[in-house]
Write a structure and sequence with these properties.
single chain, about 475 residues, alpha/beta, UDP-N-acetylmuramoyl-L-alanine:D-glutamate ligase, 6-stranded parallel sheet, about 35% helix
Length: about 475
C-alpha cells in the first residue's frame, strides 16, 4: 500500500485542496494530512487547530490526519511516506523534505492543484458573509401574541427533561460536488467530474439527531438494508447520542439520496431506495419494542417519507398505544417526489405538512389557507397544524380548547438567504414538538420551530441542531 503525505495549515478546505487531494489519491492508496499546530502556523492560522483538523478529516479523500508541532522532515523520517506533495510554487525553492525522502527512496512531487484563491481570502469572504444580516425575528408576531424572548429560552431549556421516541424512514443524504467540464459533443448533455462527496444523516434519522442535539433523551427506531450505509448510520447515530434500533431487511437497501452539485447549484438528484412496506415480521418486532418502552416516553414522532417504514396498520397500533398511556403524538409525512397522505395520521397533537401535501390530502386545489387547514384538521382530527409555505414562511392553525375557537396566524420566513433548504421541515417538526410538550403555546412552538428551520437552511446538508445555538439565535 503506497502512502502520500501533504502538510499545511488548511484554514478552509477549498477547491484547490480538493483537486490536490484527488491527485494524491490517484497515485497512492492512503492520503495522510499533517495539519500545522497553531504554534507552527502562527499568523497564518485563522482558525484554531482542532477545527482545522476536523475540516480536513471530514473530506472523503483523506484517510488519516493529525496536528504536528515539529518539522515536516521529522514527520517524514517517522512515517516514511512513498510520496510527499507540495504546491507548484515550491518547485524552484529549497525543499528540506527532499533529502529525507531520498534516504529511503521516497519521492517529492509538485502540483499546484489549480489554486484560484487562497484559504485566507476565502475565509475572509465567509466571515464577511456571516456578519451580514440573514436572520430576523418577527417582532410583529411576538407583539400580537405577547411573546417574550426570555420565556422562549426557558421553554427551550426544558427540552433536556423530555424523552422522545422517533420512528420513520432513515435516509442517508450524499452531496457530490462536481467540476463542470463542458457540453458533450455527441448530445446536449452537461459533463462534470466528481471532486468531493460528503454524507449526512437524513430522514427520520436527522429528526432523532436534532432531538438529541436539543437535549432530549432519544430512542430511534427504523429499518435499513444490509450495507455500508447502514453501518454509517449506526456510527453517526451513536456519535449524535441517539439510542437506536435499526431493523435489517436484506431485501431492501438503506435509502440513499445523492445530490450532484456544481458551483453551489444542484444539477441532479438520484435516489436509491425500496418503497414497499416493511415485512409483517419487522412490524411485529417494532411494535413489541414500542410496547415495552412507551410508558417511559413523553413524545412519539412519526417521521414519514413514504418509503415503507410506516405501514398504516403499524401507525394505527402505535398511535393507539401512545394515546392509551397519554403520550403526545406528532407527525410529518413528506410528499415530494413520492406520494403520501398526511391525513392518515389521526388524532395527532401536531402535524407539519407543506401546502402541497395539505392540498393532496384534502383534494382541495383552490381554497385559501384558513379553509384548507380547517378541512385538513377535520379529516385528520389533529389538534394543531403548522403549514409550511417555503419562502413565504409558516401558517399556524390551532383550536383554542376552552372556547373551541379556531385561530390562525402566519410567521414570515426568518432567513432571507438560505443556503440549502433540505431538512428545514425536519428541524421545524422536532423543535416545535418539543416546545409543545414543554407547555409552550402553539404560537411559541411555531416560532421556535421557524427559528430552528432558519438555522438549518443557513448551511449545506443536514446537521443536528444544538440547544445552545438555538438559544443564542433567540437571545442575540
Amino acid at each position: 500500500m503506497k502512502t502520500v503525505l501533504i502538510s499545511g495549515h488548511f484554514n478552509v478546505i477549498h477547491h484547490g485542496h480538493l483537486r490536490l487531494f484527488k491527485y494524491a489519491k490517484s497515485i497512492a492508496t492512503k492520503l495522510i494530512i499533517a495539519v500545522e499546530s497553531d504554534h507552527i502556523a502562527g499568523e497564518d492560522s485563522h482558525v484554531i487547530e482542532s477545527l482545522r483538523l476536523e475540516g480536513v478529516l471530514s473530506n472523503s479523500f483523506v484517510d488519516d490526519a493529525f496536528i504536528f508541532d515539529e518539522s515536516v522532515v521529522e514527520i517524514i523520517k517517522r512515517i516514511r511516506p512513498d510520496f510527499v506533495i507540495k504546491g507548484k510554487e515550491f518547485e524552484e525553492l529549497f525543499n528540506p523534505e527532499l533529502e529525507a525522502l531520498e534516504s529511503y527512496g521516497g519521492k517529492l512531487l509538485f502540483s499546484s492543484g489549480d489554486f484560484v484563491f487562497s484559504s485566507s481570502d476565502f475565509l475572509k469572504n465567509e466571515l464577511r458573509e456571516d456578519l451580514s444580516s440573514k436572520f430576523i425575528l418577527p417582532n410583529s408576531f411576538l407583539e400580537r401574541h405577547n411573546l417574550q424572548k426570555d420565556h422562549l429560552i426557558e421553554l427551550i431549556k426544558c427540552f433536556s427533561k423530555k424523552r422522545v421516541l422517533v420512528i420513520g424512514d432513515l435516509i442517508i443524504d450524499e452531496y457530490i460536488n462536481c467540476e463542470p467540464l463542458g457540453m458533450s459533443q455527441e448530445d446536449p448533455t452537461i459533463v462534470v467530474t466528481p471532486v468531493e462527496s460528503k454524507k449526512f444523516m437524513g430522514g427520520a434519522g436527522i429528526v432523532a439527531a436534532h432531538a438529541a442535539g436539543l437535549g432530549a433523551m432519544v430512542k430511534f427506531i427504523s429499518v435499513v438494508g444490509e450495507d455500508s450505509n447502514a453501518e454509517y448510520a449506526l456510527k453517526k447515530l451513536k456519535q449524535y447520542s441517539v439510542d437506536s434500533t435499526l431493523h435489517v431487511e436484506s431485501n431492501r437497501p438503506t435509502t440513499l439520496k445523492q445530490r450532484f452539485r456544481s458551483n453551489g447549484k444542484s444539477l441532479l438528484r438520484v435516489s436509491h431506495l425500496h418503497q414497499e412496506d416493511i415485512s409483517l415480521l419487522t412490524q411485529e418486532k417494532i411494535m413489541k419494542e414500542i410496547s415495552e418502552i412507551i410508558t417511559d416516553m413523553d413524545l412519539v414522532v412519526f417521521s414519514d417519507f413514504n418509503y415503507g417504514c410506516l405501514p398504516q396498520s403499524l401507525v394505527d397500533k402505535i398511535s393507539e398505544t401512545a394515546e392509551t398511556y397519554g403520550v403526545r403524538i406528532v407527525a410529518d409525512s413528506q410528499s415530494s417526489s413520492q406520494v403520501g397522505d398526511i391525513s392518515r395520521f389521526k388524532n395527532m397533537d401536531l402535524i407539519t405538512p407543506t401546502e402541497r401535501e395539505a392540498r393532496i390530502a384534502t383534494k382541495n386545489k383552490s381554497d385559501g389557507l384558513p379553509i384548507l387547514t380547517d378541512n385538513l384538521k377535520k379529516i385528520s382530527k389533529s389538534k394543531n397544524i403548522l403549514l409550511k409555505l417555503g419562502h413565504e414562511g409558516l401558517f399556524i392553525h390551532s383550536t383554542y380548547i376552552s372556547s373551541k375557537e379556531v385561530f390562525t396566524d402566519q410567521i414570515p420566513a426568518l432567513n432571507s438567504n438560505p443556503v440549502d433548504i433540505s431538512g428545514a421541515g425536519d428541524s421545524l417538526l422536532i423543535s416545535s414538538s418539543l416546545a409543545l410538550i414543554s407547555n409552550a403555546s402553539i404560537w411559541e412552538a411555531g416560532l421556535i420551530g421557524s427559528i430552528s428551520a432558519s438555522i438549518q437552511v443557513s448551511r449545506l446538508g443536514n446537521r443536528p441542531l444544538n440547544l445552545n445555538e438555538l438559544i443564542r439565535y433567540i437571545r442575540d
